[in-house]
């Protein structure tokens, strides 16, 4: 157990694609993370109608029908669909949870993601994978890390939350 698994944002969906910040090529994060969606949109002529040039403003503009903003989310959704389809074909999945700030984009991300997954996935069991936004917001990764740390350092059954009496009471 090296602790290196779980970096799905750095799975390559296009080996000849754009260079990622990690040094790899075609990483799904390069196409679908909030900052990279906004970066691509800015490079393609988007200017936020209100606020900072970030994923939140991009999502608002996509919801309002701005063509470059819509294209950015469609591009990001297609990258996510490729990663999800590849992963689901390799390991048995029934649900995929999308985290990070981009998960708050709602329908502007999840509607094209559903269409892209239907298009990319050939196998029926892959097309049947449900994709949902995290309910933990941008702190989803922290919750997972905390759970892993707890598992590696202590007995969950003996955790303070599971004790029948308060700490210090005998």
Description of the molecule:
This protein has 170 residues and is mainly α. It folds into 2 domains: 8-135, ATPase, nucleotide binding domain (Nucleotidyltransferase, domain 5); 139-170, no CATH class. The protein has 7 helices and 2 strands. The protein has a two-stranded parallel ribbon with strand order 1-2. It starts with 27 loop residues before the first helix and ends in a 17-residue tail after the last helix.
Question: Which key terms come to mind for this protein?
Answer:
about 170 residues, mainly alpha, Nucleotidyltransferase, domain 5, 2 domains, two-stranded parallel ribbon, 7 helices, 2 strands
What is the makeup of the main sheet?
2 strands, parallel
Distance between the termini: 38 Å
Q: What is the residue-mean pLDDT, rounded to a whole number?
A: 86
Strand fraction: under 5%
Under CATH, the topology of the largest domain is which? Nucleotidyltransferase, domain 5
Question: Pairing-aware structural class of the strands and helices?
Answer: mainly alpha
Give the % helix.
40-55%
Strand elements, count: 2
CATH-scheme architecture of the largest domain:
2-Layer Sandwich
Helix-strand pattern, N to C?
Answer: HHHHEHHEH
CATH class of the largest domain: Alpha Beta
Chain oligomer state: single chain
> How would you describe the shape?
globular
For the record, what is the CATH homologous superfamily label of the largest domain?
ATPase, nucleotide binding domain
Strand order of the largest sheet: 1-2
- Radius of gyration equals 19 Å
Number of domain modules: 2
Spans where pLDDT lies below 50 across 5 or more residues: 163-170
Number of helices: 7
